[in-house]
Amino acid sequence: MSGSIQDTFFEECEELLEATDEGLTAIEGGNHDPEVVNAVFRAVHSIKGGAGAFGLDELVAFAHRFETVFDEVRANRLELEQKLVQLLLRSSDHLCDLVATARDGGETDEAHHNMLIAALDEYIPEEEEDLTFEPMGLGGGGFAPAAIDLPTAPTEETYRIRFHPMKEMYGTGNEPFFLFQALKELGDLEIKLDDTELPGFDAIDVAESYLAWDLVLTTTEPRDKVEAVFEFVEGLCELSIEGDGDAEADAAALAALEAAFGAAPSVEDGEAAPAPFEQPAPAQAPEAESAPAAAPVADAAPAPKADTAKSEQRGGPKPTLRVELERVDRLINAVGELIINHSMLAQQIANLDVADMRDVETELEGFKNLARDIQEGVMSIRAQPVKPLFQRMARIVREASSATGKTCKLVTEGENTEVDKTVIERLSDPLTHILRNAVDHGIEKPEDRESGGKNKVGEIRLSASHRSGSVCIEIKDDGAGVNRPRVKQIAIDKGLIPENAELTDSEIDNLLFLPGFSTAKEVSNLSGRGVGMDVVKNAVTGLGGRINITSTPGKGSTFTIILPLTLAVMDGMVVSVADQTMVVPITSIVETMRGSDDMINNLGADGTLLSIRGNFVPICDVAGALGLEKKDDQPPGVYLLVETETGQRSALAVDDIHDQRQVVIKSLDGVCGEIAGVAAATILGDGKIAMILDPESIIAASPSAAAFDTERRMNNAVAS
Amino acid sequence: MQSQVEVKHGDQEVKHAQFSEFVSFTVAGQAFCLKITQIREIRRWSPVTILPHAPSDVLGVMNLRGAVIPIYDLSARFGLHQTEASERNVVIVVAVGGKPVGLLAESVSEIISINPDDIQDTPPVDSRYTMEYIQGIISHDETMVRIINLDAVISVPEQVMM
């Protein structure tokens, strides 16, 4: 089945699209380095090549136009002015859509597609508009781009090529052999191996590249075509191509080169016996050791592989491995089990009646440390940089800007901050919403900005950073800030707060997160989709994080999202409730205290309040809220003072506190449905399962919570 | 009925050998059986962690090599009395929809070979549970063994409480 190959293609497409986006963003930022342009060109070219192989005609046709325009840019026939860059960015977005459509099925936006094609065509010179696309040769290096200009009449010319690969070239799976083969297709080729740099056998570093080649090529093909052969090893080798015609012009350069090489042997003077083409292979022997893995790759894999490797080079090459997430999760499970197994083993050994256990204990300690190391290592596999997420956000801002007629740019920081993969996936929606809001409501119209003395282009800054065990994501715009009088009025109009409520500035800002709040005057098709900021807040809370807003009128607003590093591990307090061991997330606990009778006050028929330093806090009996029966009638011994998201305080009554430790979170999805009061489960050191409690829903389920009517809750929410 | 059984169990084993193997066990004094290929493992009962607000036939959850699996009391599920679980009881781990699930039974009896032709239809009785959960009966050593319709007993995802 071609299915799996196609899957691989789409996975690679993701990476290539990321590379494209990254390159275009750099170009937009003013970096017109040929290397960046080339990287984008290569990425688009690879997408086209793969798409051609799978018969995805629409994708091929579009990628081809995209690529052709880029080829013009590359050849310096087009200037990267702002309008073109914007078009290219939109084209890159559309390319994403086309890839997604090809993968998941569905319809593309025909009008948009045709509009972009027409716009791109404007930049393509007439004669190149025909759409002949040659699928990429599987054989090797000669991927001449589809669009070749033919500046001169074909005359035979001789090129002297000095080619000295660096060791990095072999690392990317390139093979000199294929390059020579491609050259040979262009005309007569003489090859001479230069092994003067080869050190004595004992001094050879197998990973180093010592060999160089002097090539003499006689061909009718233009110089571009010769250079194109080396396209994909550019920057990975020392290369000089001297044509007969331009020899004089380049004499100075040659002299410099010769100086650099210590008088390179002349190729012309006949002493260079015409080497048979096969010669490099045996001569390569010392290197063959260095590139055994690379060779088959170059052989089997078509160009995209090499392309990807090359385009990733710029960010510092880090070999990566693509693994199914499920395999990692299985590993995480197994490691968790290993740690539990260790503590059980330790318990059993401690119970043995042995006089001298010091040796065993030392070994056991070593075992424990190793297990922890493995656990940390496995956990870190799940961590991913937020970069791809941020790159997607750039598109959101672009689209939102063009939909609202505002000009904004997204500046990202800390893209390499690593966050758990699940967190990244689930952050996409809330971030999209916040950014759309920022463009729609935050950033002012260009003319308003100018009259306000601001830069016409609004700036939205998206940054990620690690902050003491958690991840901090900040979205900061330089727009108008929250219009507090209006926000307050809307909240009053919608009955969210009492008319006479006295609110501080920050309280008004936080009104935005109340359910049913939407400030858009008219429902724009952008952010007014009937979804308010409360959805954003819920999404963030669902990830165990919290969100905050600060705003300065006229200067802009900042949303701060604080998230836990991982969803897999959590700090918890181990407590016992009605003979069951349970875990309460430490993040929600403000304070713990041992209770005494005189701290408990009755209120009404069955309401009880705990007095803490003069404040009265409702008591919530955890056992009762969970529907568990207590064995005896002893009053609960310990109270955990918790604060909910809305700022409401409550004292959770439990029997005892045992420990505070990191627990591995096990989802109960698929095991049973949603249970009120329980967030997840974990496995304790003795192999037993303990429920991880969700204080918020326990308080909601507790009978005494009924005493809190909605108005009271609302006021508490506002007061937070 | 015979053809129905064939359809439901129309996998390799049935086709290869005429006889298929079932594991028989007792629940509340009655003999039941499950196809051996449906069973992942059989474990000794150990106390489980209670799920709050769970119905009476859900005993709780157990740690199966790092996975959290729910344990059902088969007896309560069949509308019989609740089992007072002890060390002598067993948990039969089966996979329903790819998810492991534990079933508490009194004890495991033996492995029996059954000719599909010998499976009889469940006679109509006035019990909803019986008609739903039992897909056929067979006579073995002069006792009646009930074949459990696993998919009907455990429907995944199980909604314990919303």
| Side-by-side strand order of the widest sheet of chain A | 14-18-19-17-16-15
Strand content of chain B: 35-45%
Number of helices of chain A: 24
Main sheet specs of chain A: 6 strands, mixed
**CATH topology of chain B, anyone?**
OB fold (Dihydrolipoamide Acetyltransferase, E2P)
* Global structural class of chain B: alpha+beta
CATH topology-level fold name of the largest domain in chain A: Heat Shock Protein 90
Order of helices and strands of chain B: HHEEEEEHEEEHEEH
Question: Strand-residue fraction of chain A?
Answer: 15-25%
Q: Briefly, what CATH class of chain B? A: Mainly Beta
Just name the CATH architecture of chain B: Beta Barrel
Low-confidence stretches of chain A: 128-153, 262-314, 521-530, 705-720
Low-confidence stretches of chain B: 1-15, 156-162
- Alpha-carbon Rg of chain B, integer: 16 Å
Assigned CATH class of the largest domain in chain A: Alpha Beta
State mean pLDDT of chain B (0 to 100 scale). Answer: 79
Cα shape of chain A: flat
> Counting H and I runs of at least 4 residues, what is the number of helices of chain B?
5
Overall average pLDDT of chain A = 74
What percent of the residues of chain A sit in helical stretches (DSSP H or I)?
40-55%
Short overview:
The complex is a heterodimer of chains A (720) and B (162). With 720 residues, chain A is α+β, with helices and mostly antiparallel strands. Helices cover 42% and strands 21% of the residues of chain A.
Describe the protein in words:
The complex is a heterodimer of chains A (720) and B (162). Chain A is of the alpha+beta class and 720 residues long. Chain A folds into 5 domains: 3-128, Four Helix Bundle (Hemerythrin (Met), subunit A); 157-313, ACT domain (Alpha-Beta Plaits, 2-Layer Sandwich); 325-384; 386-564, Histidine kinase-like ATPase, C-terminal domain (Heat Shock Protein 90), CATH 3.30.565; 569-719, OB fold (Dihydrolipoamide Acetyltransferase, E2P) (Beta Barrel). Chain A is built from 24 helices and 22 strands. In chain A, the strands form 5 sheets. Chain A has a 6-stranded mixed beta sheet with strand order 14-18-19-17-16-15. In chain A, a hairpin with a 5-residue loop joins strand 18 and strand 19. The longest helix of chain A is centred in the middle third of the chain and has 27 residues, at 325-351. Chain A is flat and about 105 Å long. The two termini of chain A are 58 Å apart. Chain B is an alpha+beta fold. Chain B has one domain (2-148): CheA-289, Domain 4 (OB fold (Dihydrolipoamide Acetyltransferase, E2P), Beta Barrel), CATH 2.40.50.180. Chain B is built from 5 helices and 10 strands, in the order ααβββββαβββαββα. Chain B has helices at 2-8, 12-16, 74-77, 128-133, 150-153; strands at 20-27, 30-35, 39-44, 58-64, 67-73, 90-96, 99-105, 107-114, 134-140, 143-148. In chain B, the strands form 2 sheets. A 5-stranded mixed beta sheet of chain B has the order 8-1-2-10-9. Chain B is globular and about 45 Å long. Chain B starts with a helix and ends in a 9-residue tail after the last helix. The model of chain B is unreliable at 1-15 and 156-162 (pLDDT under 50). Chains A and B meet through helix 14, strand 21 and strand 22 of A and strand 4 and strand 5 of B.
